[in-house]
Design brief:
The complex is a heterodimer. By secondary structure, chain A is an all-beta fold. Chain A is built from no helices and eleven strands. In chain A, the strands form two sheets. In chain A, strands 2, 4, 5, 6, 9, 10 and 11 form a seven-stranded mixed sheet that branches. A four-stranded antiparallel sheet of chain A has the order 1-3-8-7, with no helix packed on it. The model of chain A has no long low-confidence stretch (mean pLDDT 93). Chain B starts with a strand and ends with a strand. Classes of the chains: A mainly beta, B mainly beta.
Amino acid sequence: GAVVSQHPSWVICKSGTSVKIECRSLDFQATTMFWYRQFPKQSLMLMATSNEGSKATYEQGVEKDKFLINHASLTLSTLTVTSAHPEDSSFYICSAPPRLAGGDYEQYFGPGTRLTVT
Amino acid sequence: AQTVTQSQPEMSVQEAETVTLSCTYDTSESNYYLFWYKQPPSRQMILVIRQEAYKQQNATENRFSVNFQKAAKSFSLKISDSQLGDTAMYFCAFRGQGAQKLVFGQGTRLTINP
């Protein structure tokens, strides 16, 4: 199947700093990518939909100014956690459906990024 | 809005046994897609099986099969001859016909004991 990568896989940052997480589709183009947050032993919570060439769409309750999303190309989306605080520590996962996918398609997930804010 | 409910937070069975994970969902759409994802300790999401609502035949992938009951809005996953490598979190997910977003259930933590 298609591959989605994330970088870094694990990042530790100090409170108040910003950290950027990259999501890349390696062998397909994705006009849309999704960013999820997952706390331990919990389900995936959709944070936002990243759209190539336009603004991201955020889910209710997600701070747009804190979680900046940029979909720079058809293969790259970035999530920047600004002014990080310990409560932002979590596991962040991206996913992408193939571009121009029809009705029945598989969505591909990245391996996730563990963020620890100290 | 669509919702997905997994009522079994944890399950545990012996190796080689058969186990069934439950999932119910709520939607007003007539066609949609249902998925079961596995998340092992590595936390990589892996697609186990998928079902299109218009297809009456239950999907099967090797040891994994589903029991799709459209009228009851139920989508259970059966794992036959369970193996130690099946130990993982399992998430049921829904996607509407015209949508790209997945709606996930709460997950079921499955442990296969030797």
